[in-house]
């Protein structure tokens, strides 16, 4: 492991200054450290300095505000999974958080770290493989094992988005708050993540020096039809039941009133470099009478632009089935 300087700033301003372009080249944020330290130990990154968020006030915790829920970036995944309001009104998020990784990782891992974790592609994670994402000259996965690669959205790099919470937050129209040297900005979660076609070296729009401070989720009554909290579910297919990333995951939110789907949101993980919004499924569902709704057909609309590779065609079938199951489960109540 390479030596690095460790900083523990006591304010957001100090943090941003330590990370800024002038002072912070090769400076990395550390939250729970469950992903960052792996990257350092495995020699994938060699930070000159590591800036901890542990001493920065007001970054941890979940508060209910007038316009919705505010989840601080340093809130642990375990706290999100256990929060009573999240469990009842944002069920897909509680399920995504409660089912990810292992209890140990959920206890130290934070929301900010989960959203900003780096991809799990074997080739990116191998210290001796200079893949495109690490400044190399080719994607080695393409001529290797394509089983875990994306089926849509790839562009020279074919990673899949790894964060379960990001997929769940997508169906609640969450917004990501960011602080940097030029102030604060807030982005819809769909605009926070970027694919390799935009910049192959990163997965979000965060600039050097910027920190995610919290995630805002609209009030349940603003998401649900007729003021009712929406029904939502998170389903995840993986190779091992514990401590494993999604092969494919799906978050579904449905609002049904008077026998008709009023609103619907469907997002997929494990299929694209960013959380993938299944807009054709949403269009099929919205305004449809529940009696005439064919969840099997809805499932087939999951990834219309899928272009599977040699070993990952199973992901399309899996996505279709998970979407079908998610819808059926919510309609069954
Ligand atoms: C065995 C194993 C299984 C796992 N399974 C899953 C799984 O099934 N699903 C899943 O979603 N995840 C899974 N993970 C990933 C795990 O959830 C993440 O490691 C964890 O959430 C990261 O949180 P952290 O606070 O430890 O982040 P850190 O390791 O501290 O940071 C991770 C990254 O985010 C950046 N970062 C941290 N906080 C901020 C912030 N506020 N603003 C900007 N950047 C920030 C860091 O610089 C770093 O690049 C697994 C990890 C392991 C080791």
TrEMBL record:
This is 4-hydroxybenzoyl-CoA reductase subunit beta. PANTHER family: XANTHINE DEHYDROGENASE FAD-BINDING SUBUNIT XDHB-RELATED, XANTHINE DEHYDROGENASE SUBUNIT C-RELATED. Residues 1-222 form the FAD-binding PCMH-type domain. GO terms for molecular function: FAD binding; oxidoreductase activity. Transmembrane segments: none annotated. It comes from Geodia barretti (Barrett's horny sponge). It comes from the Eukaryota. Pfam families: CO_deh_flav_C (PF03450), FAD_binding_5 (PF00941).
């Amino acid at each position: 492991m390479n030596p690095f300087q460790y900083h523990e700033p006591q304010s957001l301003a100090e943090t941003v200054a330590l990370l800024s372009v002038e002072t912070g080249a090769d400076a990395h944020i550390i939250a729970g450290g469950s992903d960052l330290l792996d990257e350092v130990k495995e020699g994938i990154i060699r930070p000159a300095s590591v800036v901890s968020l542990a001493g920065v006030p007001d970054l941890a915790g979940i508060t209910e505000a007038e316009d919705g829920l505010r989840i601080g970036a340093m809130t642990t995944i375990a706290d999100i999974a256990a929060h009573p309001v999240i469990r009842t009104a944002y069920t897909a998020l509680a399920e995504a958080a409660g089912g990810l990784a292992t209890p140990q990782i959920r206890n130290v891992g934070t929301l900010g770290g989960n959203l900003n974790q780096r991809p799990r592609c074997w080739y990116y994670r191998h210290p001796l493989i200079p893949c495109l994402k690490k400044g190399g000259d080719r994607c080695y996965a393409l001529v290797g094992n394509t089983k875990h690669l994306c089926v849509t959205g790839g562009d020279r790099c074919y990673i899949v988005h790894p964060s379960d919470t990001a997929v769940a937050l997508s169906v609640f129209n969450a917004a990501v708050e960011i602080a940097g040297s030029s102030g604060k900005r807030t982005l819809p979660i769909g605009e926070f993540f970027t694919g390799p076609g935009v910049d192959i070296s990163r997965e979000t729009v965060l600039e050097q020096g910027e920190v995610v401070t919290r995630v805002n989720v609209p009030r349940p009554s603003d998401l649900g039809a007729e003021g009712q909290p929406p029904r939502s579910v998170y389903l995840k297919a993986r190779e091992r039941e514990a401590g494993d990333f999604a092969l494919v995951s799906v978050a579904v939110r449905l609002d049904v009133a008077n026998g008709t789907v009023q609103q619907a949101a469907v997002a997929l993980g494990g299929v694209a470099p960013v959380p993938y919004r299944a807009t054709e499924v949403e269009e099929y569902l919205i305004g449809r009478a529940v009696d005439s709704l064919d969840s099997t057909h809805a499932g087939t609309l999951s990834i219309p632009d899928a272009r599977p590779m040699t070993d990952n065609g199973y992901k399309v079938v899996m996505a279709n089935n998970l979407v079908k199951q998610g819808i059926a489960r919510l309609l069954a109540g």
